[in-house]
Amino acid sequence: MSTTRKVPMRQCVGCGEMKSKKEMLRVLKTAEDEILLDATGRKNGRGAYVCFSRECLAKAIRGKGLERSFKMSIPREVYEKLEKEMDALEAR
Known about the structure:
Elements: E1 9-11, E2 18-20, E3 24-29, E4 35-38, E5 46-51, H1 54-62, H2 65-70, H3 76-91
């Protein structure tokens, strides 16, 4: 009798779609209130998930999905840094 492993599902803060954890990119808030991308998904801190697309990141910014997840206001410079990091990841 084989056992099936449960696949962890997460909701995108941009489009709201449920996908497996490996299909999404983790945005992380550290203990020092620093916001950054966590491509490995293993760093310590509060995480929110976004699909691997600029459209979902743009929706998360417009709809304030990340601000709601982290319960804090996020400056524009941080969003610009996230967009640059997303571009670098998409270029791979």
